[in-house]
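Below: protein 1.
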Amino acid sequence: MIDVRETLEINAPCEPPRESRPSLRPIAVPTAEESRAPFRELYDGHVAFVWRNLRRLGVPEAEADDRTQEVFVVAHRRFREFEERGHGPRAWLFQIVLRVASGARRHRRRHPEIPDGGQVAAQGVIPAPQTDAIERSQRLAQLDAALATIDMGRRAVLVLHEIEEMTAPEIAHVLGIPLNTVYSRLRVAREELEQALQRQGEGR
């Protein structure tokens, strides 16, 4: 069975490539004094989480900054509605991330511009001397391509469990689906990911 965390080398000691870092300017914070600090804290603490999951849900790197801003614009607009219910802000933010990623996917289908999903552009920004970074970027590109073959609903479960290390009950809460559905989607998604990665290996 494929180990997604190992594939991503999340705990690798080497310097992460640019792909793993959102290069964003902070968005405007609320003008209301009572919400300024909490929202800025939310942004600073979770901007990398949002950017990372947009990428894993199929948003090309070339669009990731803009879509991250879009997520926080929505979060800013709905910030007063957020209530802590024991699952933390990541659960709430991921719901927005999923909607934004799905919307971006629909937009690309209607307005195709980058046939390769931006992989060439993503690889082109990495300096040649950074051998380790290039190799890791290529592995991430392969993982992104494999994830792209999986239905968005199953992909969301896989990302939350294997990358964000959420429990099945937490995922059920985030996605608003039954617990048994989480388990079934996770099982199928793992199988589909492994098959996709195997096809990539056979095609080399």
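Below: protein 2.
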Amino acid sequence: MRLCAFCETALDAKPLIHIAKEVSLLSERAGVHEKGTFNIQNLLDSTRKSENFDKTGAIAVFIGVARGETLEGEKVEKLTMQAYEEKANEVLTKICSDLNKKQGIVDVQIHHLLGEFNVGEDLVYVSVAGSHRNEVFSVLREAVERYKSEAPVFKKEKVINAKGEPAEYWVSEKEQKL
């Protein structure tokens, strides 16, 4: 029996099923997910299954959460996260692929959640596994900065404004007004 080098499944007469498994495994490494379909345990499990995990001496994880206050001090009631999903998956995968090539890095993953979130709920998970903490910490910071600036993920804040009135806006819309 011949096994796929990528996912170690048996290659059989159903190539479309095999291709779907490969795509699924790629989405385990990076992408956007509806809230409730991916969590921190999924991230850690996937990291531990990465190729060359035996070379890992450190794993650093960043968890972005819904903040209860805007930069201007308004009270946040809820957040809605949306994305241009196809492009976001492509960008997040590319960031992980680029950073995974750095010296001492074993695995890089970025997973952004989509949907409606209460204050304190997880929004994004970024993990970096590598040989030593120095490489891991610097790559983790770069991964966070890159996904924030490159991935087409959009945030709408539902707030109580300075007058005590409810308001909502896409964060990029408000930034343009400042």
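The chain is about 35% helix and 35% strand.
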